[in-house]
Automatic annotation (TrEMBL):
This is Trehalose-6-phosphate synthase. Pfam families: Glyco_transf_20. InterPro entries: Glyco_trans_20 (IPR001830). Gene3D superfamilies: Glycogen Phosphorylase B. Signal peptide: none annotated.
Length: 482
């Protein structure tokens, strides 16, 4: 098999500095890393030779990258789970502007429809400087990929952080075959046009530098084509799903991402998960459990989810004392004020619910804002109801992991705006994520659902969730380049 380069902002591991100055390592979070980690680690005849190029996300990562030969963490003896990883030492200021100001505060907001438009976005001279850093950051990836790639290799460039890199790489290495994959939704044209015209154009042209542009669902692929139709000089063919621009043709494809059921079940059988499950069960007794697991992320809609739980307890007092909501929201993107404020809003709303309904022997809500992966897996196992209510989401792997690990069969309350709804909506209770009352009623129906029906639906959800394991998802993207 030929060489495959993977490029993404976040790599499989990142580092922090402990108090004694030593580097501590942890697994990266989020759907992208979950999808790719197993693939990059697999070696052997059936697996391509993968090199994963990622950015240093902070000072500790930069230290680790500098201590490794040319940023190759695996060659320096760091435990990368078997993957060959090159971590790029991008200057802190450039990284901060590219990642926080452009990728996360602008592109993420555009694709997830997160702006409060009377106030933002606001593209001024600062935004231009931020954009230049985004260009420099993308160029750093393109340079590294161009240098590391064997002749004719395939490059799989991931996500909105790297939308310019495909074109930049093609300019440097026309011999390579390039795929770009978006893990997010794609904005509809009227919303995409919030971006300054030249920036919007560069983003589209950047992705169109790839031979293949992949999306998680039909809906996001078709929104991308809608945006390309507005691009001067581009020709969109809806039947062959191609975009021709400047003599180059990009095929657009849909590649759903699911979970590796076997690996997930194995991980969940480990001792740390079993212990946490026991502790959680002791804490909540035999009450029914409504579980959610997210990054503390604006698009995940955690505050409205809590408001729906509040409305459930207010409108259906029969559940008081008989149900507990476990909401695990691990910290995310704390450099951004919006995320810090959002976390405060989550904590405030949670406290209001506890103050209003809590009694001496019943805690209605357990909210935890810290990262504990084994505890999340334990919660999936115990869930009676899983709440996944994002405003908008590329796929949402929680909606897939939960049913796979659920022991008694959980009911899934799922936002119709999550990509996963395209595959799971028949057996989930689907909701409009903005409709708090509808969400509350869906929770009520889910709690009332007969055990047998819950278990049957859950089994079908688990089957759908594991139908497209990461290995297949990735292989499909690469095959689209042949
Ligand atoms: C989403 C994005 C990923 C990102 C992840 C975690 O899933 O599509 O690219 O890695 O969120 O976000 P973070 O900013 O912590 O990497």
């Amino acid at each position: 098999m030929s060489q495959v380069l993977v490029a993404s902002n976040r790599g499989p591991v990142s580092f922090s500095l402990s108090e004694d100055g030593a580097l501590a390592m942890r697994r990266g979070g989020g759907g992208l890393v979950s999808g790719l980690a197993g693939i990059a680690a697999a070696r052997g005849e059936a697996s391509p030779d993968v090199l994963w190029v990622c950015a240093s996300l902070g000072e500790a990562d930069r230290t680790a990258a500098r201590r490794s030969p040319d940023g190759r963490l695996d060659l320096a003896g760091y435990e990368t789970g078997g993957a060959a990883v090159r971590m790029l030492d991008i200057p802190a200021g450039t990284f901060h502007r590219a990642y926080n100001a452009v990728a996360n505060s602008t592109l993420w907001f555009v694709h997830h429809l997160l702006y409060d438009t009377p106030r933002s976005p606001h593209f001024d001279a600062h935004a231009r400087r931020d954009w230049q850093s985004y260009e420099a950051y993308n160029a750093a990836f393109a340079d590294a990929l161009a240098r590391d790639a064997a002749p004719g290799a395939k490059a799989a460039i991931q996500d909105y952080h790297l939308s310019l890199a495909p074109r930049m790489l093609r300019e440097r290495r026309p011999d390579l075959r390039i795929v770009h994959f978006s893990h997010t939704p794609w904005a509809p044209p009227d919303y995409f046009r919030l971006l300054p015209d030249d920036i919007g154009t560069q983003i589209l042209l950047g992705i169109l530098g790839a031979d293949h542009a992949g999306f998680l669902t039909e809906r996001w692929a078709s929104a991308f084509l809608d945006c390309c139709e507005l691009l001067p000089g581009a020709r969109v063919d809806r039947v062959s799903r191609t975009v021709s621009c400047g003599g180059h043709v990009t095929r657009v494809g849909v590649h759903g991402l699911g979970v590796d059921g076997t690996a997930l079940r194995q991980r969940a059988a480990e001792q740390d998960v079993v212990e946490r499950a026991r502790a959680l069960r002791e804490q909540v007794g035999d009450r029914q459990l409504i579980v959610r697991v997210d990054r503390t992320e604006l698009s995940k809609n955690i505050v409205r989810g809590l408001a729906a739980y509040r409305e459930l307890l207010a409108n259906h007092p029969e559940w008081r004392g008989r149900v507990v909501h476990l909401a695990f929201a691990y910290p995310s993107r704390y450099d951004l004020r919006e995320y810090r404020e959002y976390t405060e809003a989550v904590e405030r709303t949670a406290k209001q619910i506890t103050d209003e309904f809590g009694t001496a022997d019943w805690d209605p809500l357990i909210v935890q804002v810290n990262d504990d992966y084994p505890r999340s897996l334990a919660a999936y196992g115990l869930a009676d109801v899983l709440l996944v209510n994002p405003i908008r989401d590329g796929m949402n792997l929680v909606a897939k992991e939960g049913p796979v690990l659920s022991e008694r069969g959980c009911a899934l309350v799922l936002s119709r705006e999550a990509g996963a709804a395209a595959e799971l909506s028949e057996d989930a209770l689907t909701i409009n994520p903005y409709d708090v009352s509808q969400t509350a009623e869906a929770l009520h129906r889910a709690l009332l659902m007969p055990r047998a029906e819950r278990a049957e639906r859950c089994a079908r959800l688990a089957a759908a969730a594991t139908a497209l394991p990461p290995r297949r998802w990735f292989a499909d993207q690469l095959a689209a380049l042949d």
